[in-house]
Amino acid sequence: MDQTTTKSRSDRISFPSLETMTPAQRDVYDQIVFGPRKTLVGPLRAALHNPVLADRWQRLGQVLRFETSLPTRLNELAILVTARRWNSDLEWAIHVKDADQAGLDPAISEAIRTCSAPAFNGDDAAREIYEFARQLVCTGNVDDETYAKIVARWDEVGVVELTAVIGYYSMVAMTLNVHRVPLPEGVVASLPTEAGVLSVLPPART
């Protein structure tokens, strides 16, 4: 079944189908499915109700997911931290697979999933990304030392991109959560969560 025709199991929001899309919605849909994403999933299904919003959204998302100066595995690491903080099962399900394919140590992903302290085993670049993302999603800011480490390794463009990635995927997680966008067929929720409680991520192991 085409995912655009599936209604949310929560009945909280409907999703435009190919048969009901306006020309503007269909234009955005075609850009998405013929672009790097290849399929319409996640928050864009809801955002498509406003095709201008969906268009800007998918363009920004394409840059932050596929076109930053950060290595893909580290970009995905920051997204996993964000997904875990906001308890977003769909965001997690998509990006834990992408992180694995990009070469992120699965033990790191599993530690984040269980809100345990990850061991980076000398991978200082990953440790710095994790700590930056962890501080930002948990406190709304980062300390000077953490900020300086990202700038030193990735320059100012890197710290701007990293902050934008975390902010963007926070918006994605909130959209998925509030509209109860369902998981794709065959995907099972895997995040241990407590209703109404945000996940707390500990610092990495020293």
Explain this structure.
The protein is 58% helix and 0% strand. The protein is mainly alpha-helical. It has 2 domains: 3-66, no CATH class; 72-179, AhpD-like (Up-down Bundle), CATH 1.20.1290. The longest helix is centred in the C-terminal third of the chain and has 36 residues, at 144-179.
Short précis:
58% of the residues lie in helices and 0% in strands. By secondary structure, the protein is mainly α.
Label this structure with key terms.
disordered N terminus; globular; single chain; AhpD-like; 8 helices; 206 residues; 0% strand; mainly alpha
Q: How much β-strand is present in the residues?
A: under 5%
Number of helical regions: 8
pLDDT < 50 stretches = 1-9
CATH superfamily of the largest domain: AhpD-like
Overall structural class, as computed from helix and strand content, comes to mainly alpha
- The helical percent reads 55-70%
C-alpha geometry? globular
Series of secondary-structure elements, N-terminal to C-terminal: HHHHHHHH
The separation of the N and C termini measures: 48 Å
CATH C-level class of the largest domain: Mainly Alpha
Please state the average pLDDT score. 91
Write the layout of secondary structure elements.
Elements: H1 23-33, H2 43-47, H3 51-66, H4 72-85, H5 89-102, H6 106-113, H7 124-139, H8 144-179
